[in-house]
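hey
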């Protein structure tokens, strides 16, 4: 069975079931948390205003049956950066995109004022999203026009004039973004320190995403840009790498499995992910190590082995080079927090 909700249905069911919590620490930091448990879905939303023109939001949604939500965006001066943490969905933005698969490992930037949107979810699959809500005209108001030229083209216009046509654009969530997202979800601070920390991480995420989008534009005129037919093979290569990250196959073996020559694989990987094949593997291993150390359930040697390092000293060096601290010191620091 598929349940279909329009705006009015959604508002009515939330009004009946939602529990709202407003937290304020010394009247300096505001946090808002809302939850609703209904027979149709479970829903959680948390958000915090940061600096002028910037807000961070985390929401979770889990429907009991296949679920379609149809609603119209209001008029807004806000563009949204959304990162898919858990669960997949399919979105249609009328007049912008016929269909977009929003899957874990990807993200988008969107401006959709007065646009009708349809979101389709699978029964009993939890969806988790981290969103950065940005008002470009406010956030970038102190920047000079020539500085704005380094932003994605849509934001340049938005920041300068406050007016732009609706858009929706997806990107890849890189290992650097994944680390920042995990730090947001596991923020160790409270009060003003929490706000400062989350503001820094939100800006870090924005920087990584904007950089990826501007690089993709600058590469669009490159004659050696990876062919459309090969894009799927590059993603297959990435999946092979991740699924075997503890003991990865050689570059030639990966190329053979995805039916590309090694030169095309290396070239395509760099153009799509902005790094080399094994540079991506290294970043992924470090991301996994970071998360395992955060749990506090494993010794450093065990973490090293779990992410594919036979030598603890090599792991220690790689971790310190990536994060500026050795893994044992980081784990001790996290335990004290």
């Amino acid at each position: 069975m598929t349940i279909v909700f329009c705006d009015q249905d959604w508002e009515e069911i939330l009004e009946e079931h939602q529990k709202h919590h407003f937290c304020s620490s010394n009247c300096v930091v505001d946090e808002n948390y809302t939850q609703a448990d209904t027979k149709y879905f479970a829903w959680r939303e948390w958000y915090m205003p940061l600096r002028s023109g910037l807000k961070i939001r985390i929401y979770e949604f889990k429907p009991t049956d296949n679920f379609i939500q149809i609603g119209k965006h209001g008029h807004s001066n806000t563009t949204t950066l959304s990162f898919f943490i858990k669960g997949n969905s399919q979105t249609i933005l009328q007049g912008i995109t016929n269909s977009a698969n929003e899957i874990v490992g990807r993200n988008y930037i969107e401006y959709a004022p007065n646009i009708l949107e349809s979101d389709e979810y699978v029964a009993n699959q939890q969806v988790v999203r981290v969103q950065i809500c940005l008002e470009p005209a406010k956030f970038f108001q102190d920047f000079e026009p020539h500085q704005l030229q380094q932003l994605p083209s849509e934001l340049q216009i938005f920041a300068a004039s406050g007016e732009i046509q609706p858009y929706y654009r997806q990107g890849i969530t890189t290992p650097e973004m994944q680390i920042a997202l995990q730090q947001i979800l596991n923020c160790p601070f409270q009060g003003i320190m929490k706000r400062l920390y989350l503001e820094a991480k939100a800006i870090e995420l924005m920087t990584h995403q904007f950089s990826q989008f501007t690089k993709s534009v600058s590469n669009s005129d490159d004659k050696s840009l990876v062919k459309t037919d090969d894009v799927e093979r590059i993603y297959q290569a990435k999946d092979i790498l991740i699924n075997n990250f503890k003991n990865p196959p050689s570059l030639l073996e990966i190329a053979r499995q995805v039916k590309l020559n090694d030169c095309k694989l290396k070239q395509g990987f760099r153009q799509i992910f902005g790094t080399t094949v094994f540079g991506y593997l290294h970043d992924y291993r470090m991301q996994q190590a970071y998360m395992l150390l955060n749990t506090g359930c494993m010794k450093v040697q065990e973490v090293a082995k779990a992410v594919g390092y036979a030598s603890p000293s090599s792991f220690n060096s790689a971790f310190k080079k990536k994060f500026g601290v050795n893994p044992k010191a980081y784990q001790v620091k996290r335990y004290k927090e």
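Residues 2-218 form a domain with the Jelly Rolls fold (CATH 2.60.120.10). The first helix runs from residue 7 to 17.
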